[in-house]
Design brief:
The structure holds 2 protein chains of 2 kinds. Chain A is mostly helical. Chain A has helices at about 5-25, 35-60, 65-70, 90-110, 120-125, 130-145, 150-170, 175-180, 190-205, 230-240, 240-245. Chain A has one domain: Ferritin, core subunit, four-helix bundle (Ferritin), CATH 1.20.1260.10. Helices cover about 20% and strands about 25% of the residues of chain B. Chain B has 4 helices and 7 strands. In chain B, strand 5 (about 110-115) and strand 6 form a beta hairpin. Chain B has helices at about 5-10, 55-65, 135-145, 190-200, and strands at about 30-35, 45-50, 70-75, 80-85, 110-115, 125-130, 150-155. The chains are: A mainly alpha, B alpha+beta.
Chain lengths: ~250, ~200
């Protein structure tokens, strides 16, 4: 198995966690409830921590140190899916993205507990509790607001329709897909996507919402290859502002 | 009335006809209990606002256990906590609880909490099987009352509680590593001292 295939997998996962962690942290101090503000910020912090763990594995494979990798690349060098870079807008969208993304993330890491690549299997086992909370949080909110009032149901449904093509883009296949599956490192995007669909359908079935027909959705892909929306670069500029002024600064 | 001053917006509206008092547009409260270490008694920590029991559990997890390690957490609707009279001095709250109470109906499990020190939190004292709240306190009076002064007693029906499930026990496994959530970990004083030395 080539190291390139493994690094590609690690980079896309790490970048997803970093970018969504940053996006979700933008809600800190502005969450809809005090308790939710704390919970959402904590989970954003978890995501940054998970990205650090993945960048650390990459560093051990010869890539540059985590801070350099996180703060000095341009948008076209990032491998995150486009879903995670979209601006927050209203809380309904952030909740829907949290639900769609974290469900996929939990399934991905659950599969990685069986990875033949030991550092990844160990990390997946270690963070299982964090991911369990993230999905419990997402599912509980979706079930609550997805059956609360006509306004809450409609807003979530609209956000779901908007986010879904991006969410299917999470599963954009790697050029090394066959290789990575054959090596036993990862069971592949297709399998994860099937499990993800079944799971989000299961939760939405407990609400007054519905899942649009996934077959007629045109997935928005490209993120894994460095093709991004106009929203990523401004996020990176803001995230790396302090680092660019003084790379040795501690904060 | 639209104003940038929230005090003006909170003024009651002038209503011309009589009607029922409208409930406040806010969530109810749920009490949060935490088990700090495996085998240690659950302790009352505070409360969260939430629309229902499950949401309360989800929100309580981060509001109360994002910094200090714990092994388990549970929540219950504030209205489901049965409270004894509050005492002071050396008067035991159990003195006002009858020894015999109506025990008609099926028995169920109750969690009993004691307030041992005024100003501290209620701590789990034990569980009893009883027919109702007052019956639970009456049983606790003979089984959990050591004679030591208890200032206040709570009885909570077990089946009203949202417990941590066995598979959720792993929710806190990475918490000991999250030292960055602890303010003292930043060593602000040391950093300030270094900075001042550098600038002087």
């Amino acid at each position: 198995m080539s190291e390139l295939a493994l690094k590609e997998l690690l980079y896309k996962m790490a970048d997803d966690q970093l970018i969504l962690g940053h996006r979700n942290s933008e809600w800190t101090g502005m969450g809809p409830l005090l308790e939710e503000d704390i919970a959402f910020s904590s989970m954003a912090q978890d995501k940054i921590g998970q990205s650090l763990a993945l960048y650390t594995i990459l560093h051990q494979l010869g890539e540059r140190d985590p801070d350099t990798v996180a703060f000095t690349r341009n948008a076209s060098q990032f491998h995150n899916c486009q879903l995670v870079e979209l601006p927050n807008a209203e809380y309904d969208f952030s909740l829907i993205r949290h639900f769609l993304y974290d469900t996929a993330e939990a399934i991905r890491f659950e599969a990685l507990t069986r990875s033949s690549y030991e550092p990844l299997a160990q990390l997946a086992a270690k963070i299982r509790g964090e991911l369990r909370y993230h999905t419990l949080h997402a599912n509980t909110w979706i079930k609550q607001l997805g059956s609360a009032t006509p306004e809450s149901i409609e807003r979530l449904q609209k956000s779901l329709a908007y986010a879904l093509p991006f969410a299917v883009g999470i599963f954009e296949e790697s050029p090394y897909e066959k290789e990575i599956i054959a090596s036993g490192i990862f069971e592949g995007e297709q399998k994860i996507k099937e499990k993800w669909l079944a799971q989000i359908q299961k939760i939405l079935a407990q609400t007054s919402m519905y899942l649009p027909d996934i077959k007629i959705i045109q997935p928005i892909v490209g993120g894994r290859m460095g093709k991004h929306s106009e929203h990523l670069q401004p996020l990176l500029d803001e995230m790396s502002e302090v680092f660019n002024i003084d790379p040795t600064a501690e904060w | 009335m639209n104003s940038l001053d929230p005090r003006v917006n909170r003024l009651p509206e002038i209503v011309e006809t009589e009607s029922h008092k409208v409930p406040l547009d806010q969530f109810g409260t749920f009490e949060v209990f935490v088990e700090p270490k495996e085998g240690k008694p659950f302790q009352h920590e505070g409360c969260v606002h939430a629309p229902n029991l499950e949401m309360a559990y989800v929100l309580a997890k981060e509001a109360f256990t994002r910094r200090f390690t714990c092994t388990s957490l549970y929540v219950v609707d504030t209205q489901d906590v049965y409270v004894s009279p509050m005492t002071e001095g050396d008067k035991n709250a159990y003195d006002s609880i009858p020894e015999v109470a109506d025990d008609a109906g099926d028995k169920t499990s109750f969690e009993i909490y004691h307030l041992i020190k005024r100003g501290k939190q209620h701590v789990h004292a034990g569980s009893v099987s009883a027919a109702n709240d007052l019956h639970a306190m009456a049983i606790a009076k003979t089984t959990l009352n050591t004679g030591k002064t208890v200032y206040n007693i709570w009885a909570i029906r077990n089946d009203k509680i949202r417990f941590t499930t066995p598979e959720e026990k792993d929710l806190w496994i990475t918490l000991p590593e999250k030292k960055f959530r602890d303010a003292s970990e930043y060593k602000g004083g040391v950093k300030l001292k270094n900075f001042l030395e550098k600038t002087n």
